[in-house]
Amino acid sequence: MTCPNCDHSGKTLAPECYAELDAYIDALHIAPNNPRRKETLIQTLHKAQGIFGYLPEEVQRHIAQRYSIPHADVSGVISFYNYFTTTPKGGVQISVCLGTACYVNGAEKVLQEFERTLNIKAGEVSEDGSFSLECLRCVGACGLAPVVTVNDRVYGKVQPGKVKDILEQYLVEASITKEADHAKD
Amino acid sequence: MPKIRSYAQLLDAYEQFRPLLSIRLNGQDVPTSERAILVCGGTGCHASESQQIVANFKQMVEDRGLGDTIHVSMSGCFGFCEKGPIVKIYPDDVFYVEVTPDDVDEIFESHIMDDRPVERLMYQDPAHKQRVAAQHDIPFYKPQQRIALRHSGLINPEDIREYIAVEGYQGLGKVLAEMTPEMVIDEMKRSGLRGRGGAGFSTGQKWSFARGYESDEKFVICNADEGDPGAFMDRSIMEGDSHTVIEGMAIAGYAIGAHQGYVYIRAEYPLAVERLKIALEQARELGLIGKNIMGSGFDFDIDIRLGAGAFVCGEETALIHSLQGERGEPSTKPPFPAQSGLWGKPTIVNNVESLANVPVIFTRGAEWYSAIGTEKSKGTKVFALAGQVNNVGLVEVPMGTTLREIIYEIGGGIKDGGEYKAVQTGGPSGGCIPVQFLDTPIDYESLTAIGSMMGSGGMIVVSDQTCMVNFAKYYLEFTVDESCGRCLPCRVGTKRLHEILTDITEGRGTEKDLEELRELSETICDTALCGLGQSAPNPVLSTMKYFWDEYVAHVKEHRCPAGQCQKLLQYSVVDEKCIGCTACARVCPVGAITGAVKQVHTIDQSVCIKCGACMTKCKFKAIINN
Q1: ipTM of the complex
Q2: Among B50, B247, B228, which residue's Cα sits nearest to residue B148?
Q3: Which helix (H) or strand (E) holds B226?
Q4: Is cis: bond before B337, omega within 30 of 0?
Q5: Is the omega angle on the peptide bond into residue A88 within 30 degrees of 0, that is, cis?
Q6: Which residues 476-505 of B have a C-beta within 8 angstroms of A?
């Protein structure tokens, strides 16, 4: 989930988020002249994505500077690995497993149903930023195929008919949070 | 707990902790009031609320003050994922399937308190409709021989005492106390263990190469980047028996002269990462890894490194680049990692399942191990049986078992009474095996001979409802996604293969396309840089070899025999079944369906985009496709 402390529209990221990241990097004791200093880069990117929800250029530059490496090295690594993203994801992250076991048990139809219901394609975020839809390859719960994960929850044996039920549950939660936010304003 | 400072102290600890498992191991000798309740904590069962089941049991025990006699714990994966969550009661050896948190009350009241096992939660044999109480009587388990999975479902992976109680770390203890590195390597060679990650290279040989290179530093890497979709044995081993992987790595470290190990694990496996972390901490605390292990003077420590979602990182050179914080692109071999690997130092990369076999080779001996299996492939292999088969789960059988035994005896045959069409082994690098090879005893050689490969052991069964052209396309889609882009044959070639296959499945294919498909596939096999690229066309080649008729039907008749390729389908309304409820017309995104209320509807084929929404929506089975 994207970090609630940061303003993503104006891309001003919260100082406390940076502080958390810096504390993590400090503990790694990176020596600028150590030729092996990049060995923890991927862990740090995981940490940063955990904090901010994604890896915007500003964060990339910050990490590059902390590691004393060119920004291109950081950006090159991020673009290589599927796990890292440079754009914010939706509040509710839906991932449909397209591993082989899920695939032969009809995962494609489930994905299509999500696409149709949310009116977005896999890899996209809904206009209001509340949902994002992705495909992933095998969570290793093949006994439950087809599998869908929503945020960290795993739903097993999902049929196209169950898609609406799953979404509704999160829509209700989302509207409750929204109302609460409005009340605060 | 105090540190274990010698092999003798480890053996003492073994005697001390042995009683922890007495209920589970030699059930009949314990007081009848004592029981152990084990609940599966693997990813599959975890997703089905198995943690809540553990919590409910613990609550019941606490409420009644039975903590001294009833022991509740979570275990590693039992492997029978189809029927999860699984609960096993010792010493009665009763095996409950598909348990929900609500069933806990009944199991506790009836079975634990009143000694009346709950029959309705036992496994039901579909053939005879009889309930089976004991795990070893269930057809899924009967033919299995568990070595790599020997502790999964027996011990609590988060408690090192239980691992020590099943002779854990004794392989390492024995090696450090009694053997030279050369003897270790010799024992490994004699065991005949071959890499379980896919290529099947002799593990002992690999170690001996790395031993042979002089260097101030060497590394042991555990390849836990289990990327083949549909394979989950490594995850299961790490979740259910993390210590065995650690012990295997330490033995490898001693053999080659390394003092540092890394586990490179997929970020998609959070539970396995967590369990490994716990296990490492416990092992360090007891001095079973770290400095001067068991007083031998040998130092070895292990760190965990997360992957970040790149299939190619399962290839060893790519994995090493990733460990160095770089893009995970492969490089040409030689030099092999055994000579120049991580940071240019001699490195061995072993798969999780291979390492899980190592400790037991030293506690039971190479002769024992090499007596199992076939002439050239020793030991057992874990297969992740999945797809359109009744019993999805992890299956460990001796090498040389036939596909028929695995799919029909253990797997319980094809789901929903379907007909067997093929089994796909080896993941995106493997091939599809048709019905005529069901009786082939499987090992590394025999699978390669019939155009597939062992791979990491994914075994996806497909029934007659699967279109093999579309299935090949699915794998190519995967390879296109995962190709790292470093070499042209893989980067561009797989993309072209995918385009041709898309044309064929959408009715635009020609006979010339089939020729091109074959030629391009062979070229990629010959010219790609790494194993991923060289094997990427295998799904195409093997389906073309065994399911040629299907390709021809798509190209010549624009027909998909399995009825799966949507663009080749025609949806139509069965007049007798349509009641005119209008549900289909309302769900159709392009307005292709017309008809008045309570009148038979019709589909305008020129408008229909073949999305199938109407068919899914119709409750009366009035819409069919052909």
Answers
A1: 0.86
A2: B247
A3: none
A4: no
A5: no
A6: 478, 484
